Amino acid sequence: MTENRPNRPDGGFATRAIHHGYDPALEHGALTPPVFLTSTYAFESAEIGQQLFRGEREGYVYGRTRNPGQALLEDRLATLEGGEAGLAVASGMAAISATLWTLLEAGDAVVIDHTLYGNSFALFTKGLTRFGIKVSVADFTDLDAVERTFREARPKLVHFETPANPNLRLIDIEAVTRLAHETGALVMVDNTFATPVLQRPLELGADLVVHSATKFLGGHGDLIAGALIGDKQTVESVRQHGLRYLTGATISPITSFLLLRGLKTLELRVARHSASAQTLAELLERHPKIRWISYPGLPSSPFHALAKRQMSGFGGLVAFELDGGLEAGKRFMNRLSLVTRAVSLGDAETLVQHPASMTHAAYSAEERRRHGIGDGLIRLSVGLETPDDLRDDILQALEAV
């Protein structure tokens, strides 16, 4: 139970990812936190049950809102992101939607960056707008345009990704947050690509952080989950409203267990993802068949200075376009043998996909063009394989282009 956990020393990132919030002595000596496969919880008395429902007593009532393994996961996510509280849910989209349905109502305004994961973009521009919420889109890399849009829209909430999916644009979290707070808006940052290993938006002023925990946090391609981290009052409000009855997007006990396992190696994995991505990005930048490449770790990137300022590393994603556009990209992808053609990212396996026809198909062709998602764009999620093997596979595939 959360209330019985000892106060462990904070320690470094990896120490907290492995130990925070759990004492084996309280669970019969079990080194690994147990999985609580229960949908409901018994009350010692009717009075205790009443206190739990009223929120006058800490504990567990029903599995839709909280499970002991989930609670431990949420505590660890909060400490890793530097937040007061965390909420784990069934998917990254659930984390975003549960938050939006909790905080917004008809008549409110929202401003988003123009480059988001395709389903996030659809939720904001096609979902929220059906319920009387005004959604404005801006280029968050242009601070003058952002300031004008915030001033005109007077948003209640601002949302963006950095690095952005799929073209790896970076947004100045501190600067955008300052402008948003001047107009009274909350700032929600999707930190999926960077993870708290490389970037902690709350420390740069943001109010809320969301993750598709399916990706780097889980890290093994065997789960679907999402997370919200922020101040305790907001997070608990999302739990009681956005999760409990607005979405019902409950994370399973087994998924919580798998995520706790994934967090233990997160720092090590992200370091390997980043190192291999840097090597491959430098290789691709020099290759004569590459038209352009986007990776914040390259000195040639327009976002390199910002990345060095607000991130401690450059991440495991590389975006590029081949001479010959989409057809050349298809030939390249079809020739790969070690690298796997699949959506998602952050797995042990290196994955390659075509955003315009896959993850960002929710954008119209005009929206993709306007927002820098070219028809020939290829997104590479660099995995944990031996770097030389990845290099050899990519070079032989380029020969087919």
From TrEMBL:
The enzyme's E.C. designation: 4.4.1.11
CDD domains linked to this entry: CGS_like (cd00614)
PANTHER family referenced in this protein's UniProt entry, alphabetically: CYSTATHIONINE GAMMA-LYASE, TRANS-SULFURATION ENZYME FAMILY MEMBER
Residues where N6-(pyridoxal phosphate)lysine is found: K215
Alphabetical GO biological process terms: methionine biosynthetic process; transsulfuration
GO cellular component: cytoplasm
GO molecular function: methionine gamma-lyase activity; pyridoxal phosphate binding
Cofactor field: pyridoxal 5'-phosphate
Organism, as annotated: Telmatospirillum siberiense
Keyword Transferase: no
Alphabetically ordered keywords of this record: Lyase, Pyridoxal phosphate
Similarity remark: Belongs to the trans-sulfuration enzymes family.
Keyword Lyase recorded: yes
Enzyme class, spelled out: lyase
Designated name of the protein: Methionine gamma-lyase
UniProt lineage: Bacteria, Pseudomonadati, Pseudomonadota, Alphaproteobacteria, Rhodospirillales
InterPro entries: Cys/Met-Metab_PyrdxlP-dep_enz (IPR000277), Cys_met_metab_PP (IPR054542), PyrdxlP-dep_Trfase (IPR015424), PyrdxlP-dep_Trfase_major (IPR015421), PyrdxlP-dep_Trfase_small (IPR015422)
Pfam families: Cys_Met_Meta_PP
